[in-house]
From TrEMBL:
Protein name in UniProt: Thioredoxin
Keyword Transport recorded: yes
GO cellular component: cytosol
Organism: Amycolatopsis vancoresmycina DSM 44592
Taxonomic lineage of the native organism: Bacteria, Bacillati, Actinomycetota, Actinomycetes, Pseudonocardiales
InterPro entries: Thioredoxin, Thioredoxin-like_sf, Thioredoxin_CS, Thioredoxin_domain
The keyword Transport is annotated on this UniProt entry: yes
């Protein structure tokens, strides 16, 4: 079962160079809503293995990437496709709502 792996400022290039879309959750240890989203993202990682990668980035420990994508609230999930951010979800939502946003973003043809 695929895990939701951690990325950092120094390893974020793996997200940008991925052959599959990557959903990155910007989170922090003190963030209660982040803990609510965690199990949902783990389910998505398992269910969409091979078509979507799921990663998490600790915003407190990785300020460079957090700033560069203008993350102001946690949790923030950014979907990257072809190295570009194509969808941003701010806040904790039920799985169905997250899936709906992902599905809509992933069905748009890439440029």
């Amino acid at each position: 079962m695929p895990e939701v792996l951690e990325v950092t400022d120094s390893s974020f290039a793996e997200v940008l160079s991925s052959d599959v879309p990557v959903l990155v959750e910007f989170w922090a240890t003190w963030c209660g809503p982040c803990r609510m989203v965690g199990p949902v993202l783990a389910q998505l990682a398992a269910e969409r293995d091979g078509e979507l990668a799921v990663r998490k980035l600790n915003a407190d420990e990785n300020p460079e990437t957090t700033r560069s994508y203008q993350v102001m609230s946690l949790p923030t999930m950014i979907l990257f496709r072809g190295g570009e951010p194509v969808e941003t979800i701010v806040g904790a939502f039920p799985k169905a709502r997250i899936e709906d946003r992902l599905d809509r973003a992933l069905t748009v043809p890439s440029l």
